[in-house]
Amino acid sequence: MKIITVEEHFDTPANIKQFNAYSKVKNNNPHQEILGKTLTNFDKRIEYMDKYGIDMQVISDAGNSPQVLPDEYIVDACRAQNDTLAEAVSARSDRLAGLAALPVNKPEEAAKELERAVKTLGLKGAIISGTIDGQFLDDPKFEPIFAMAAKLDVPLYLHPGVIKDEQKAILYDSKAYSPALATFMGGAAWGWHMEQGVQMVRLIISGLMEKYPNLKLVSGHWGEFVPMFLERLSEFLPFSGLDLPHSFEYYYKRNVYVTPSGMFTDPQLQMVLTEMGADHLMYSEDYPYIERKDSVKKFITEADLSDEQREQFAHGTAEKLFKL
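Above: the chain's sequence. Below: its structure in token form.
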């Protein structure tokens, strides 16, 4: 069975150096000295894929992304990162495809870079990590990015990012447990994902999907909590004044695609499959932050799916969405 994973990550030595020098966001790569070598080594990536039966990866920078650099650096840094990515994937186009990093806090420049990345570099869309220095993407200033994605008919992958220190202090710091546990609670265990779920909800209720009906967004980690609340949101938001011609779940099921990001768990698969259908499911490992190794093939092969659903989840939806 063909396997395509779509939330897999890379970095470059130049970007890591620039990130460490200028970023106000704390280093987002655990075990940097070890992981950095994996992120930047495309030969090791292909060896890993060969060993564990992965036919193709769609790769992106969602760790030390140039997106989070100070504004004076982000345009040139994103261009350089995208140029390097395009060169790498073009040399291995049968095994790799790429998503662009964008200078999101300069939305007009981000829209131009998305167009260049797709039309000139051959990348398949873009990735946006977290909020933008605490700004959610439903702010009208960011609309040019979504308008360009809709115009180009390419997806945007909405990935978690490091939350603001103020959020962490209010929501996750506690006298009852250690600062280290608070950091994990505010990060990969819970907080990143909850914020990104809020991000998606806000985008939908802002009317963005009504304005751009062909906009395609991708959400990892089984949808960052949102799929289990689709009916609740659809029922309650109209009481609060939501004035859209369709329900919340209508837009979510039409415009959003969901991946596991290495969370190979049967209950979540069955719940998201029930809500979204296999034609809105794609596979992902979150390599190299997570390396599931033999479980990459084992989970999808043994999952309780029909043959058609399994093929869609494993590769069919990704091929259609990313035009692979």
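Strands lie at 4-9, 56-60, 96-98, 100-101, 126-129, 156-159, 217-219, 256-258.
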